[in-house]
Amino acid sequence: MSGEQRLFIGGRWVDPDGGHYEVTDPATEETVGWAPEASRDQVLAACAAAREAFGPWSRTAPEERAAVLARAADIIRGRLVPYAELAGAETGATTVTARGMQVGVAAARFRRYARVEPAEWAIPPQINEAGPMGRAGVFGALAVRQPVGVVTCVTSYNNPWANTAGKVAPALAMGNTVVVKPAPQDPLSVYRLAEALEAAGVPRGVVNVVSGRGAETGETAVSSPDVDMVSFTGSTAVGQRIAEECGRGMKRQLMELGGKGAAVVFDDADIASAIAGIGTTFSFYSGQICTAPTRVLAQRGVYDRVVQGLAAYAARLTVGDPRDPDTVVGPLISAAHRDRVESYVELGRKEGAALVTGGGRPPLDRGFYLCPTLLADCTNDMRVAREEIFGPVVVVIPFEEEDEGVALANDSDYGLIDYVWSGDVARAFRVARRLRAGGVGINTVGRNMEAPFGGFKRSGVGRDVGSYALHAYSEVQAIVWPG
């Protein structure tokens, strides 16, 4: 679909020093295209180009930057079908997901940050008495958001469009320049996004994209002395290594890491609603999403109904070619990742969990598929209940009373998004405030796209989305003067 892709460095399309590597369609195992392998020198050149472009871009009027983002949104929306076809081929997402949740969300995010917001606000005056610092007086102050500088954006494989747009759009809106290092599994979509920005009139060097299969590409993009901030979405283990490098260079960081979302289902919950919400783990990106409610804590009075309902729900889902409009569950991203998920299913059985449904591969000739899998009778100390599996696997754990449910939910290394299902609104909000998670969904897995997004504990550092992303990609400067 894409032939041999070139790198995007300093506003030019450049042949890669390291040649190309194959990008595989996880549904068909056929070649989608050939991604470029950047050398260390080319990554450093991209960072240097972003540094050179930062001064002029940061001084550009916010309205002009917003106009570029608005044009990019229009271009992406206008090319939705071919862009979604490529996204589906690279990621294995269904057509509906690729159009609506990948390319469609990317266009919406560029449109969102094409809206200029105030970047300064007044601080109440302060009356100072005479002293060592000078005579008495009234001092005014102004807080001003300033761009950070050059931002390296390391993106995830599960949604190359929306994840990249969620970093690049607010970073550019604040006057930063970016170097994007896409996930090696599906980088071609990110180069299409760069093409859209180029067509929208983004100046040379403001956006750069470099890819590679090995760790060196990302490590160089993070450690370059031209880089001021790193925005990363991915595993906690990789995030820790990036954070160590950022610490050595005193670089700002925004980390959106792993999750093991607890779904606390109380006796008085709308069980059909809970099952439909939790069931998105099976279908949405085939469970390859950090916000999924993968760890179900069901109160004893509804435990059997929840298990039976989830088993029936999973059994009804059509697994197969994501291009087929009847398909609900597509493939996992690679054969290696499917092997990893399958190893967790087997581990769960060895730990004593009951395999209620799934656990095997569907009868398909090609593709990296796994049937939606439900493990019941789990305990919170099992590895399948504690570690992020990142696949269509849900574990169910019983609890008796509210305090026990909260304790089990919080007994996790992760804290990205948890969920509460209860017919008692007061209890639902009470429990939500007790959960150690960056976000809590009450009787829903839906999101408010202006609400802050990020995690507690090993699920991340910082917050983005909406106006919070503008804060994330900026430094706050204080200006003080005598009144």
Automatic annotation (TrEMBL):
Keywords: Oxidoreductase. GO terms for molecular function: oxidoreductase activity, acting on the aldehyde or oxo group of donors, NAD or NADP as acceptor. InterPro entries: Ald_DH/histidinol_DH (IPR016161), Ald_DH_C (IPR016163), Ald_DH_N (IPR016162), Aldehyde_DH_dom (IPR015590). Coiled coil: none annotated. Signal peptide: none annotated. Gene3D superfamilies: Aldehyde Dehydrogenase, Chain A, domain 1, Aldehyde Dehydrogenase, Chain A, domain 2. Residues 13-479 form the Aldehyde dehydrogenase domain. Belongs to the aldehyde dehydrogenase family. This is Aldehyde dehydrogenase. It comes from Streptomyces aurantiogriseus.
